[in-house]
């Protein structure tokens, strides 16, 4: 849970730092940013489980509709911050693996076309693989054990080459990422 929150806070900082050209659908961008803001509030404040469940269900249902209507909401449609909000909302839909897998495939195509962030895609790849009990590709999903030590949520596939894959996706080396997790925790 702690790793999850740290990752989300880093995402919010990145979203806030991104500048945007005028997106094709500014209303959808505004909606995605509002959805992410509410998502973050229930995850980082002392929200009840009931509130968390309500927000997660509403966001998941709405993301399903958005994917049906638009495909992946990429940079061109909703701007960089809107696209990153969409990614975070799909990433957080942990109770709906099918939505995450669908979002992953749509986002993969968008990233190949330069309409989505490859580093965000890497996080979603690992999130889906962890949910399926499979090894991670990029080593983005970590948690703490009861003693507070960081450990990968599932093993990392071909760990000797993980930094090459991370670099290809625009991510920092794994060692630096872990240092950030440890210092934020």
TrEMBL record:
Region (Disordered): 140-169
Top-level taxonomy: Bacteria, Bacillati, Actinomycetota, Actinomycetes, Streptosporangiales
Biased segments, Basic and acidic residues type: 154-169
Keywords for the protein's UniProt record, in alphabetical order: Signal
PROSITE patterns named in the record: PROKAR_LIPOPROTEIN
Signal peptide limits: 1-23
Entry-linked InterPro entries: DUF6624
Entry protein name: Lipoprotein
Pfam families (alphabetical): DUF6624 (PF20329)
Superkingdom as given in the UniProt entry: Bacteria
